[in-house]
């Protein structure tokens, strides 16, 4: 692995640059002095238009050519590392770990059971329940009779980006929605204040957790978030990281329900950077920088992951690029 003057890997392939996590990881890496290869399977992905990246359209993860395409891309451009922001490709990438290492390309992925626990929302609910961590009651379509009475959520078992997350009021409505949503789960709808924990877990299992409230959420992305310190939430988030076995960059999401017997309910963990992670960076946490240290086998400096509370980050929609003619 070649490195910048700071000892960081130099050229990094970021996958999933069509959505906020990949786009912002690519930007942050460039700010840290890395060269970025921006990749996405959609030729219209926003991050392919970022200035100063090498843009590549990749084979979709569900297509048979995915693995060969990834190896070809790495053989051609020789990135020092791959940073994935696409959960569904993590098992496939994990299987390529050795072949990529031969090409000089490193990765920092959690073990397969941890990947499975975070990409399958039914499995995630099982793991949390087994560890006594409060999670929304979750059932598969053929267990609808066991769904709670009251507000429900129907969503894809293996979704990302809040796609096809639909709210409803009754089991009868949920049954209809299960016909419309691919491979769905049905979940108790939780109310309260939503939070995300941006996490970095080092190779010894020590975790830094940066908490933020999601004040405005649009299309699954926290457009406005504000950092907060809360020892009880931090403890619960760390319990989730231990229960799932996550390492590296990841995020945990949940709700705060003041006055309820379970104040904290955990809805999700993702084995990747969260879309709103720039709020953690703005509050002082060197999340991407320390991730790069861990990726290269160096120690993670948890002192550099401390953060200030009440730092509010507001995102907006903007015009990124105007191009003419046929672009890939
Ligand atoms: N059980 C629930 N109760 C209340 N709201 C929910 C529930 N499940 C999901 N949501 C809402 O839908 C959003 C997306 O849900 P979830 O995180 O499960 O899906 P995702 O596709 O994995 O999204 P992401 O890419 O943000 O991880 C949540 O941030 C939350 O606002
Ligand atoms: Mg998710």
Structure keywords:
four-stranded parallel β-sheet, single chain, six-stranded antiparallel β-sheet, alpha+beta, 3 domains, 328 residues, globular, binds adenosine-5'-triphosphate, Rossmann fold, 14 strands, binds magnesium ion, D-amino Acid Aminotransferase, Chain A, domain 1
**Proportion of residues in β-strands:** 15-25%
Shape: globular
CATH class of the largest domain: Alpha Beta
- Give every kind of bound small molecule, once each: adenosine-5'-triphosphate, magnesium ion
| CATH topology grouping of the largest domain | D-amino Acid Aminotransferase, Chain A, domain 1
CATH architectural arrangement of the largest domain:
2-Layer Sandwich
Task: Give the overall pLDDT as a whole number.
Answer: 95
Describe the protein in words.
This protein is of the alpha+beta class and 328 residues long. 28% of the residues lie in helices and 25% in strands. It has helices at 20-31, 66-77, 90-95, 97-102, 112-119, 121-130, 171-180, 231-244, 278-282, 287-295; strands at residues 11-15, 35-40, 54-57, 81-84, 138-139, 152-156, 166-168, 184-188, 193-201, 207-218, 221-227, 248-256, 264-270, 312-314. It has a 6-stranded antiparallel beta sheet with strand order 13-12-9-10-11-14. It starts with 10 loop residues before the first strand and ends in a 14-residue tail after the last strand. The structure holds adenosine-5'-triphosphate and magnesium ion (MG). Adenosine-5'-triphosphate is lined by residues 136, 153, 155, 159-163, 165, 187-190, 194, 217, 220, 253, 267-268, 270.
């Amino acid at each position: 692995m070649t490195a910048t003057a700071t000892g960081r890997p130099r050229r990094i392939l970021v996958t999933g640059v069509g959505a906020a996590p990949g786009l912002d990881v690519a930007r942050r890496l460039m700010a840290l002095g890395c060269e970025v290869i921006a990749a996405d399977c959609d030729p219209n992905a926003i991050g392919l238009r970022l200035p100063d990246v090498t843009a590549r359209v990749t084979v979709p993860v569900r297509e048979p050519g995915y693995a060969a395409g990834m190896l070809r891309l790495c053989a051609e451009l020789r990135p020092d590392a791959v940073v994935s922001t696409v959960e569904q490709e993590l098992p496939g990438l994990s299987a390529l770990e050795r072949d990529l290492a031969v090409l000089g390309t490193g990765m920092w992925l959690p073990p397969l059971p941890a990947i499975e626990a975070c990409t399958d929302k039914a499995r995630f609910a099982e793991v949390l329940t087994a560890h006594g961590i409060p999670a929304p009651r979750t059932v598969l379509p053929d267990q609808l009779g066991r769904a709670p009475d009251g507000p429900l959520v129907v969503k894809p078992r293996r979704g990302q980006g809040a796609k096809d997350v639909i709210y409803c009021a009754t089991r009868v409505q949920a049954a209809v929605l299960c016909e419309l949503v691919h491979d769905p789960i049905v979940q108790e709808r939780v109310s309260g204040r939503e939070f995300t924990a941006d996490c970095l877990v080092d190779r010894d299992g020590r975790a830094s957790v940066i908490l933020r409230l999601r004040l405005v959420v649009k299309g699954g992305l926290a457009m406005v978030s504000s950092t907060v310190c809360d020892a009880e939430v931090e403890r619960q988030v760390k319990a989730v990281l231990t229960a799932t076995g996550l390492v590296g960059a990841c995020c945990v999401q949940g709700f705060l329900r003041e006055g309820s017997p379970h104040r904290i309910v955990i809805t999700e963990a993702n084995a990747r950077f969260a879309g709103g992670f720039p709020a953690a960076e703005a509050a002082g946490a060197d999340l991407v920088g320390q991730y790069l240290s861990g990726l290269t086998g160096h120690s993670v400096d948890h002192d550099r992951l401390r953060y200030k509370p009440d730092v509010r980050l507001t995102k907006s929609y903007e015009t990124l690029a105007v191009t003419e003619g046929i672009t890939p």
